[in-house]
Amino acid sequence: MANDKKGPVSFLQDVGKEMKRVTWPTRKELTRYTLVVLATLAIMVAFFFLVDEGISFLLRFLQG
Fold it and tell me: For the whole model, what pTM was predicted?
């Protein structure tokens, strides 16, 4: 199989066949996944902001 060489046209035909086999998410699923990603991102931003502010406060406190 490693020696099977295909031209670009054959490759693109194979890509087209594989793309037809893909199970694409519905609009509702895609919206839900997007909201989950955005919520996770917001939580991570808030967490790292609080950690950064906490460390900054601690360093300012220790420096006097």
Answer: 0.64
Question: What number of other Cβ atoms are within 10 A of residue 34's Cβ?
Answer: 11
Cα three-residue angle 19-13-22, rounded to 5 degrees: 10
The percent of residues above 90 in pLDDT, for the chain, comes to 84
What are the DSSP E strand ranges found in the chain? Answer: none
Q: Rounded to 5, what percent of the chain is helix, strand, coil?
A: 80, 0, 20
Q: How far is CA 55 from CA 40, 44, 46, in A?
A: 23, 16, 14
